[in-house]
């Protein structure tokens, strides 16, 4: 006879934190970002560290929806023009390499958007569209949001879930379903 199933330590707390953060994301900001993406010829995404991984996952879904989406820094990423969008995921909004990238995109006349904890950051101020995600910055200075998780984990998880929700909104706006997206799924695996 099997005993009671063991719970995964801390998982309930993490899920609870994610439910709290999800309830604090602006639908209006999300809608503006979705519309900006739909108006863009190419969508470039960037982020550093784990945030960068979340942005890469988003680029994959955009590609599967038929968007011309690129991860900045990849060898197959084309040049940016004024009809394009650079979307940066950065909790602090102050990562030096991303700040430089944001400034360059602006100098090219491209649209710039950010998904960040700190809309008043350098990247946030440069961006035409900003989605503010609740979370604890990695350095935890001036922290107003308490989390059991280390460093930027809460932001990074919220970023991934937010971007997945944004994918669903873009699918709705384009009349797409998952079946239509499978035609663009990688097939050399």
SS class: alpha/beta
Judging from the principal axes of the Cα atoms, what is the shape? globular
List low-pLDDT spans: none
Number of strands: 5
Q: What is the number of independent domains? A: 1
The rounded Rg comes to 17 Å
CATH topology: Rossmann fold
Helix amount, in percent?
Answer: 40-55%
The H/E string reads: HHEHEEHEHEHH
CATH architecture: 3-Layer(aba) Sandwich
- Give the N-to-C terminal Cα separation: 41 Å
Calculate the mean pLDDT score and round it.
89
What would CATH call the class?
Alpha Beta
CATH-defined superfamily: Glucose-6-phosphate isomerase like protein, domain 1
Strand content of the residues, in percent?
A: 5-15%
The major pleated sheet works out as: 5 strands, parallel
Q: Count of DSSP helices?
A: 7
What does this molecule look like?
Belongs to the SIS family. PHI subfamily. It comes from Paenibacillus mucilaginosus 3016. InterPro entries: PHI/rmpB (IPR017552), SIS_dom (IPR001347), SIS_dom_sf (IPR046348). This is 6-phospho-3-hexuloisomerase. Pfam families: SIS. The protein has 189 residues and is an alpha/beta fold. It has a single domain, classed as Rossmann fold (3-Layer(aba) Sandwich). 45% of the residues lie in helices and 13% in strands. It contains 7 helices and 5 strands. A 5-stranded parallel beta sheet has the order 2-1-3-4-5. Helix 1 packs across helix 6. The longest helix is centred in the C-terminal third of the chain and has 22 residues. The protein is globular, with a radius of gyration of 17 Å. The N and C termini lie far apart (41 Å).
């Amino acid at each position: 006879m099997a005993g009671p199933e063991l719970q995964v330590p801390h998982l309930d707390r993490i899920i609870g934190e994610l439910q709290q953060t999800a309830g604090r994301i602006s639908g209006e900001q999300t809608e503006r970002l979705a519309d900006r993406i739909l108006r863009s010829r190419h969508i470039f995404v960037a982020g550093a560290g784990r945030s960068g991984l979340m942005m890469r996952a988003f680029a994959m879904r955009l590609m599967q929806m038929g968007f011309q989406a690129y991860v900045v820094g990849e060898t197959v990423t084309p040049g940016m023009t004024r009809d394009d969008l650079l979307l940066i995921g950065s909790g602090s909004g102050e990562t030096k390499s991303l700040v430089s990238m944001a400034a360059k995109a602006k100098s090219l006349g491209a649209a710039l958007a950010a998904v960040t904890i700190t809309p008043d950051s350098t990247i946030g101020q440069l961006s035409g569209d900003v989605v503010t995600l609740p979370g604890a910055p990695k350095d935890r200075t001036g922290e107003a949001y308490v989390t059991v998780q280390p460093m930027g984990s809460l932001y990074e998880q919220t970023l991934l879930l937010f971007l997945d929700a944004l994918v669903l909104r873009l699918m709705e706006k384009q009349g797409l379903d998952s079946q239509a997206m499978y035609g663009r799924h990688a097939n050399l695996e």
